[in-house]
User: Fold this.
Amino acid sequence: QLIRKRAEHNEMMLSTLEEVSLHQQEIERIEFIDKWCKELKILYLQSNPIPKIENLTHLKKLEYLNLALNNVEKIEGLEKCESLKKLDLTVNFVGEISSIKTLKCNEFLEDIYLTGNPCTQFEGYRDYIIANLPQLKYLDGNVIEKSERIYAKQNMKFIIDSIEEQENEYLGKRAIEREEGLKELEENINQNDEDFWQKPSKHTPEARYEIQKKLEKQKAEKENTRDDRAGKIAKKQPRRLYDDHGRPLNINEPRIDFKFEEDEENQLYILEIPVYKHMDTSLLDVDVQPKHVKATLKGKVFQLTLWKEVNCEKSSAQRSKITGSLVIKMPFANPIVKSKKSRDKKSSQEKSLEINDKSSKENKNEFLDVKEERKNQIDLNIVNKETNKINDSNKSVGTSMKLDCSEIPDDLP
Assistant:
């Protein structure tokens, strides 16, 4: 299951998996991976308490293996990894430097890291590695020059005896450390965490393993406390949706600013709930009932009571493609049917009102607005004279229009 989770980029397929990262997963042993992931090219196993390199023989296409920060003491189990190009064993416990000879079969091996291992403190360490692995191009991140390779081959005769002596001396010390470390492990089982962390630890595989176990214990305790808190939260009383008489209550747990309208023309309710545009629709749930509507947003309940009964079957819920908001349309269960005559009457009345408004606007006298400051500046005498002239002209026109009846003949009927 752990490997499958780490294979999300490959659609959970293990047979075609080419790269997997299993760092900091508290893995104590390498197993099954060479049978499940035969196409693997890159494998990350750093920061785990792995004591031995094993069960990698079927990984013929493996090119890069990272085992940094583990408890490896010997290089082994990589002879059949034919395509191996890079090996990282930084900060391990490789003291048996002669085990490097097992990598002679790996013809494509170009880069190896042994920084932080006990073998790097041996005199003639670099020359010994270069002489035994002629295919290498980089050692601990440094390029191997041609002159350095020639010198290592020439100096091999003189350093091989000292290397073997240093190795045997280290292995003797390591056997004593192993016995002491196992005893300390048994003694520190019931030791308090405060005393353990204050006490200085040795740089040994046993000490690192003990530290790993303490960290696992702390992690498990934290998870237990989280579970307890989650259990307490779950024990809280559930949200009350109805009162004692069974009537629905108005609830707004997500605290959203919703819009609720009544469309009289179409005889329906429209409820608009703002939702994040990129929120997955699977996190939304809508339940329309005759007297109320309920929407669940990420587990939070929004409930609204309705004044009129609605038709649940004809109700619809859609999300806006632009804003992402949720729009719920609920037609009335008992809509009021209006006849066509009443609609025609209303339309004729509206038209007559519009005509009357237009005529009233046309008949209204229009006056020029004059500011109060200029009203005092107008000479009213001049205005009166002009009006008298206009009246006199109108009288003259009226008199000219009068007929003389004396000039009409008598025989005219």
User: Anything to note?
Assistant: Confidence is low (pLDDT under 50) at residues 396-408. The CA atoms of residues 349 and 404 lie 55 Å apart. The longest helix spans residues 146-187.
